[in-house]
Amino acid sequence: MKRIVLLTGAGISAESGLGTFRDEGGLWSQHRIEDVATPEGFARDPALVHGFYNARRAQARWARPNPAHKALGRLQQAWGPETVQIVTQNVDSLHEAGGASRVWHMHGQLDRALCADCGHRWDAPSEMAPDDHCPRCRAPATRPDVVWFGEIPYHMVLIWEMLRDADLFVSIGTSGNVYPAAAFAQDAARTGAQTLELNLERSAISDNFDNTRLGKASDLVPAWVDDLLGG
Ligand code: BV8
Q: Most buried of the four, 38, 50, 55, 137, by CB within 10 Å?
């Protein structure tokens, strides 16, 4: 069985109603990255950043997995999480809701909270605020458990090992603007993986793939999974 590593981005959740970042009207057209997705922005105005993530957490609560999430869940259930590794840049939980049993959230998760003082993690409340206290150490140092620009993504050593051992790397719904995720196709190809991109339009990294298929994730991904599973 091939070892498949999948990387997903905001585009796989677009048809579930969650905004992407860099498309027309996307999140980065409504907010400056420096203000809401950096540690410096959080230090400057924690209420603004909590408000940004509270709004996304509320929106994500109503979102439902689309056929692309469900197809990847079907594939991971059929071939197992060791053979089908799902790495996502997304902080929503739609892969899990779509049936995936193991997902590596390299940029963290909306529904988790982190204490910047003691490192404790817990399920985030629907609304977080600057004067919340850590349930373990009681410090007023709580933050969303997401990876901001300038911070080190989660699970990187494991992800690079998976890319090294992959037979196939598939990128779905990402513009390829954010590193280190944007380099994963090259990382995997360096040690012999085939690479496939499934995206609505050509991305900043399309030239790094053996094949690129353009279209909506909810069309492309189920068709690709059905092909793999023999229809
Ligand atoms: C790090 C927080 C060191 C959570 C996010 C100069 C050069 C290279 C790199 C850098 C540089 N200067 C700084 C850096 C590093 C920096 C970076 O890459 N900056 C960029 C802007 C140049 N990266 C970092 O700081 C990272 N940390 O490098 O640490 C290190 C690394 C490894 C080991 C040790 C040390 C941390 C990056 C994490 C930042 N946090 N988010 C949150 O709020 O969500 S990033 C943010 O962008 C989200 O996580 C998002 O997932 C991610 C990527 O965006 P996409 O998912 O691709 O979304 P986008 O809107 O861009 O694109 C959507 C795509 O979907 C489009 O192509 C569209 O066509 C397509 N689409 C739309 N609809 C559909 C669709 N496709 C299919 N179907 C559809 N229906």
A: 50
115-137 residue pLDDT tens: 999 999 999 999 999 999 999 99
Structurally, the chain folds into a number of domains equal to 2
Do the Cβ atoms of 171 and 197 come closer than 8 Å?
A: yes
DSSP state of 188: H
Q: Can you tell me which atom of ligand 1 is nearest the CA of 8?
A: 56
170 pairs with which residues across the strands? 6, 196
Catalytic annotation on 69? no
| 90 and 183 share one domain | yes
Q: How far is the CA of 100 from the centre of ligand 1 (A)?
A: 22
Same domain as 103, residue 2: yes
Quick one: 118 and 79 in the same domain?
no
DSSP 152: P
Give the CA angle between residues 103, 128, 115 to the nearest 5°.
65
Q: Are residues 122 and 186 in the same domain?
A: no
Quick check: helix, strand or coil at residue 225? helix
Q: Where is pLDDT greater, at 6 or 23?
A: 6
